[in-house]
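Budget justification, computational time. The allocation requested in the original proposal was used primarily to generate structure tokens for proteins on the priority list. As evidence of use, we reproduce two of the resulting records. The first is shown immediately below.
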Amino acid sequence: MSETKKRRIPWLAILPLVLFASLAGLFKFQLDRAKDNPEAKSLPSALIGKKTPTFTLPAVDGMAGGFSDADLAKGKVSLVNVFASWCVPCRDEHPLLVQMAKDDKLRGLGVKLYGLNYKDDAANARGFITQFGNPYDVIGADRSGRTGIDWGVYGVPETFVLRGDGTIAYKHIGPITPESLREKLMPAIEAAAKN
């Protein structure tokens, strides 16, 4: 009987490891499949076609700024980029935001770029902007994350395109890339400018 127990103990001891490895493999398979699927980044937003939620964000401590829903309804297209200093993909997309801020076509359309600094320490946010440049016309601090929740933010970075009346026209989830800027974001901005 003791020989039977000895044979079962090694199997029972490695069973959790086998289960963990199986689950990890399944998760990796699903993530890889989602990464190759362009629809994976197009999670629906219940706010598309609706006015922005009511909010008022203060400036990041030590910086000028702050904005509200009223600022996004002044007749011109607005972009709201949700970012944080602790967000690695935000660092990846930041050079494209700087490029967009200098884009003559966007300036000609009157597009304003708003930064929604999400759940960030003010000193870190200021350091991020100092280090990487400030593409934003205005930055507001969402210290608690409440405004982000109201906007349906899944995670940072996210970028919203708003029509001149403050209606959300498009939501981009994840970092902006040259491809997504060219194929998704710019067409959404141009369409919003026509409405």
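The second record produced under the same allocation is shown here.
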Amino acid sequence: MKKVVGIRFKPAGKVYDFDCGAFVLNRGDYVIVETEQGLGFGAVVIPPIPCDERPSDKPLKKVFRLASKKDFCQREKNFETEKHAHTFCLKCIKDLELKMNLFSVESTFDASKLTFFFTSEGRVDFRELVKLLVKELGVRIEMRQVGIRNQAKMCGGIGRCGRQLCCSLFIENFEPVSIRMAKEQGLSLNPTKISGLCGRLMCCLNFENETYEELRKKFPKIGKIVKTKSGTGKVTHQNVIGQRIDVQLDDGSKIEVKFDEIIEDQ
């Protein structure tokens, strides 16, 4: 029976399925696989499982072989090539006065192609830049403009929580994040407090949003009239995680009560 194995090519990158053939692989093993751009160097993140447990609509490419010492040396050479290409490209961008922010360079495993990742507020005419790069580096060149969230994912960093950015640590695909999620969780709507290093709304707003929505269903809505041990009043605030609500009583005083202390909804 054919088995499929999950391979990742870079940290927090997408996991791709491959046919492992007769290879016995474990999580953490490094392998050489067949890709659309030739051979690729990746790490096993999902051990082999039967194909029927992880079906695929497309024919799976195969694991070519286990990575050898020579392959690790080739990867190190690629890192050096990427560093040189990055430095040279920055110089060219400055000389050509192009309005673009280069932040990463990636080489294919066989070093036949370099991809330059950059951000920019608009379109960039980089034809002259590509000519200079080809002349200096002697390989195929691809310029790829990406969004600011992708830059944060590829570059990494430390978030306001003091931990490594989620996008560079484990998030494979970006999910939509809205200001409504911050409202649902009772957070400050100050953009500087709910935005990540990329300047966009923090991805972590999406993590607990479903839980907040589910818990909030059983809470009386803001403005609802409820009855408590201290009297009848109107709900003015909800503390979903703390399972408490603020109530303004008929006499104008405000109290905080636990959700299970509400006697009756009217």
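A brief technical remark on that second record: DSSP finds seven helices and 13 strands in the chain.
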